[in-house]
Amino acid sequence: MFSTIQNDRRVSPCIFGLAMGIMGMTDAASAADLSPPERAFDQERFEQRFEPKRNWSLILGAGAMYKPEYEGGEDFKVSPIPFVKFTYGEWLEIDPKGVTVTALKHNGFSLSGTVGYESGRDEDDGDRLRGLGDIDLAATVGVKAAYALGPVELSAAVEQTISGSESLIGTFGIEYSAPVTEKLILGAKAEAIVANDKHMEAYFGVNSTQSAASGLPEYKPKAGLKRVNVSASATYLLDEHWLVRGQAGLGILTGDAADSPIVEEKLQPSVSLGIGYKF
């Protein structure tokens, strides 16, 4: 009997150890069940992290403008116009007017440099221009300062023509642009344009030689305010890529420009319409 008791005492520790092992395995399994599940692989997030976001935009299209044949003329013509606009980040913009590089932008204020062109004028553009000669196409350089107050922007710019008419032109403007709906953007703009003596003489003056050739009286305009422009525009987004833009404007010649013998009409209206595709 004593032998039997001894054997029972030897077996007990073994049973106790086995029980503890089973309990440990059970606790481990329970802990594994309580641990959070592994997150599934997010392919979209992975692509956004390793593929850089595009910081440029491009709009390509075409349109037409109905406007006077020359500044001051009363006859109108339809001219094809390119509808192109390329932007890169917040510092580069290229459109039919030229290239704009924004060097400074802070708290609504911006300072930009521009390179563009002055289209000149052909003496065949109107009867009153015959004998005055052509004004050649020329490059322009300029600087523009602007201050944005929400959808409203105030601006002042100066532009110098290289060769050609050697014009120096200053433009002071106010512009409003804001979306009305998800697809419609409306805008309005008003600006005053001042010019130096060389610009006024080239586009509105008549010297002795030109007077003899054209029959117009001699006229020598002086520098000053030459024109005030007002316009309204609407841009409608047809879908994610296609858009239509229309604009109507009125220019009013003033001062010595309005009094020039080559001017047939002081009011200079214009209308344009274009369609573009945004990449």
From TrEMBL:
InterPro entries: MipA (IPR010583). Keywords: Cell outer membrane, Membrane, Signal. It is found in: Cell outer membrane. It comes from the Bacteria. One of its GO terms (cellular component) is cell outer membrane. Its main location: membrane. It holds the Pfam family MipA. PANTHER family: MLTA-INTERACTING PROTEIN-RELATED. Belongs to the MipA/OmpV family. This is MltA-interacting MipA family protein. The lineage of its organism: Bacteria, Pseudomonadati, Pseudomonadota, Alphaproteobacteria, Hyphomicrobiales.
